[in-house]
Amino acid sequence: MKNLLTPRPWVLLLFVLLAVLGRVALPHWPHLPNFAPLDSLALFGGAYFARRRWAVAVPLLGVWLSDLVLNYQYLGHVQLFYSGFYWQYGTYALLALLAHAGLHGRVSGLRVAGAGLGAAVLFFLITNFGVWLGSATYPQTGTGLAACYAAGLPFFTHSLLSNFFYCTVLFGGLELAQWRFPAVLARPRLVRA
């Protein structure tokens, strides 16, 4: 058996809260659409929360709460859900589940970078398909779907950049914090060698 350190739940919740607050306080920093910590939040939750239900529920709750605040800021009223929200939220849940399967207990810089790239690709493919499906803007043909994906390419670039930035902040920040304050932030976990 070997002794590993795992983050305490309150530390994970603190990092999720900081990402959510960052999204609300700096919604368009650095003024790029889709530059937000949402994919990274799902990956982070999947990688670090021990139970799958928390790995999915905590990031989704963070996304929803920040959506409520941002919708109020921009619309002037509370909107519980927006049109097509299920495509985004479903993608975040999928990302959290994939991260739980692929990163949980096996976090490394290379794996996180790969997950950030994969998350941007999945988000792009799924959510743009959702925009196209039943759209009055794009014809319901292969050409219409291709046009929808082409229109989404600038957003893909921003999502990719934000995933690398926020994955570095979340995963790197947690690793740095645990390295600096191991007794406070982490608890030992015995695993079979």
UniProtKB/TrEMBL annotation:
Chain segments annotated as transmembrane: 57-74, 86-103, 115-135, 155-177
Signal peptide per UniProt: none
InterPro entries in the cross-refs: DUF6580 (IPR046487)
Domain of life: Bacteria
Keywords of this entry: Membrane, Transmembrane, Transmembrane helix
Pfam families: DUF6580 (PF20221)
Name of the molecule in the record: Rod shape-determining protein MreD
Organism: Hymenobacter fastidiosus
